Amino acid sequence: MGRLERWRRVARARPSVGEMLRAVLRRDRSPATGPAPSLTRLDALIDEFAGRPVRWRVGGQPRPLPPAVDVAAYRIIQEALTDARRHAPDAAVAVRLRYDPAGLTVEVRGDGAAIPVAGLRARAESAGGALHAGPRPEGGWVVRAELPAPEDEAEPA
Prior knowledge:
Blueprint: H1 3-13, H2 17-27, H3 42-47, E1 54-59, H4 67-87, E2 93-100, E3 103-110, H5 118-126, E4 130-135, E5 141-148
Parallel strand pairs: 1-2
Antiparallel strand pairs: 2-3, 3-5, 4-5
């Protein structure tokens, strides 16, 4: 069997990146076995990473968010923390949420090696937002998601 034929067999057997992302996003729509993902459970999420240095803070005036934005923000933080643990287990991580009149900014910073961002970008875009990621000048990495949630469209409490 030639090199080209081996490559074709491998390519057919391996799911595409798009198929993998769709599978990840579909998991949010499957029946829940526990509490729904929400920023109201951020402290519990951070507790799951006990034993690792994770700091977090919230700026602005927290308010109810559209469900798609709430879930996307939670999942972006969850995936960034999971990837940080996988790629740099002992490195410090900081999570920052910032509420402003236009929406919510989620920022996750780490001192270790850069993390993959394809799934994070898909989550931000699924809520109508944008994600920027890359190395920090002082070392480490940063992921910043800007998610739309105008104050005048806030969900009632």
